[in-house]
């Protein structure tokens, strides 16, 4: 570990690369927090938007907010050069300066998208099979299940995160120094993600095939009602599918890089540490970019979100004007 201590300066340096990262993180944090907060506000304050699909999308938005609040902390702490030792350093490492919290939010997003795909599949392709249909009464249990499962899956991230006194920084399982010692963790992540991702995309394949190819969706309804129903279901399916594809495109580079790093000889990482560091930072940033994209997908594809966004601010403006008049 002593040989690698010279590379610690990469984490503390105000290099153009690190400064650019800080600027980019600042942008996605501001944009993402505003957008995801609006999504949650729209779903919670609009009765017509309080559906199973929108509740799951709001749950994704909540996970994105937590991710965005935590994502710049390790980078900023590293650049500040702050050193804390002892048990306090380990505690801060596990909950703040490492990426353990992301271990919760990433599974929350994935599980929410998985349940969303199954819910859309049953609502669109199997509308008369109500055995697994979600209702608003069940959604509280579903959301609780998602967060409990995510917390259980995140335990290795908390357990293996620790402050290294010699390097003077937090080492979690995804750092270049520790990835090789927890190969099983990345293999397990891939092993768990792959079959569920296949199931997820199978659901959307069947949904999109039923809407665009076979046109079997809503085939038993009247022509006018069928046209409006298909249009609405098409929008919901496309939003859900777009969010799912974006999640995989943003998360896969990080997982592939970590798998590659975990199975590289340690000396190879030492010899090319600066290159590994830059790739590590870039794929990590791309993973967090996903947290600020979803509100744009809702806004571009859903007229309901756009209308309720306008209505939300119109109500607020009218309320403010009334308050000023009363005053």
Layout of strands and helices, then pairs:
Elements: H1 9-12, H2 16-45, H3 52-70, H4 72-80, H5 87-97, H6 102-124, H7 136-153, H8 155-159, E1 162-164, E2 169-171, H9 183-213, H10 223-262, H11 266-271, H12 273-301, H13 303-326
Antiparallel strand pairs: 1-2
Number of helices: 13
End-to-end Cα distance, whole Å, is 66 Å
Q: Main sheet: which strands, in order across?
A: 1-2
Overall mean confidence score, pLDDT: 82
Largest beta-sheet details: 2 strands, antiparallel
Number of strands: 2
Strand content: under 5%
Percent of residues in helices: over 70%
Q: Compute the gyration radius: what is it?
A: 22 Å
Poorly predicted ranges (pLDDT <50, ≥5 residues)? 220-225, 318-327
Structural class of the secondary structure composition?
mainly alpha
How would you spell out the order of helices and strands? HHHHHHHHEEHHHHH
Shape: globular
């Amino acid at each position: 570990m002593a040989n690698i201590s010279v590379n610690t300066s990469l984490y503390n340096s105000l290099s153009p690369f690190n400064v650019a990262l800080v600027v980019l993180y600042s942008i996605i944090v501001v944009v993402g927090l505003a957008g995801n907060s609006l999504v949650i506000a729209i779903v919670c304050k609009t009765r017509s938007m309080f559906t199973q699909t929108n509740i799951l999308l709001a749950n994704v938005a909540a996970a994105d907010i937590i991710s965005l609040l935590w994502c710049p902390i390790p980078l900023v702490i590293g650049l500040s050069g702050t050193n804390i030792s002892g048990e306090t350093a380990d505690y801060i490492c596990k909950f703040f300066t490492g990426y353990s919290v992301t271990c919760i939010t990433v599974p929350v997003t994935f599980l929410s998208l998985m349940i969303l795909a199954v819910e859309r599949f049953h609502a669109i392709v199997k509308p008369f099979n109500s055995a697994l249909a979600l209702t608003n009464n069940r959604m509280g249990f579903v959301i609780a299940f998602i967060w409990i499962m995510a917390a259980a899956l995140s335990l290795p991230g908390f357990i293996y995160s620790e402050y290294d006194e010699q390097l003077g920084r937090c080492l979690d399982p995804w750092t270049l120094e520790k990835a090789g010692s927890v190969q099983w963790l990345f293999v397990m992540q891939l092993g768990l993600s792959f079959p569920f991702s296949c199931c997820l995309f199978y659901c959307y394949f069947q949904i999109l095939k039923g809407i665009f190819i076979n046109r079997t969706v809503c085939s038993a309804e009247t022509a006018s009602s069928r046209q409006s129903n298909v249009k609405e279901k098409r929008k919901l399916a496309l939003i859900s599918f777009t969010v799912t594809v974006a999640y995989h495109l943003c998360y896969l580079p990080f997982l592939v890089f970590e798998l590659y790093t975990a199975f590289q000889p340690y000396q190879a990482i030492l010899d090319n540490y600066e290159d590994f560091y830059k790739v590590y930072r870039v794929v990590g940033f791309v993973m967090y970019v996903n947290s600020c994209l979803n509100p744009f997908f809702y806004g571009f594809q859903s007229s309901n979100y756009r209308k309720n966004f306008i209505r939300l601010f119109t109500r607020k403006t009218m309320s403010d004007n009334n308050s000023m008049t009363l005053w």
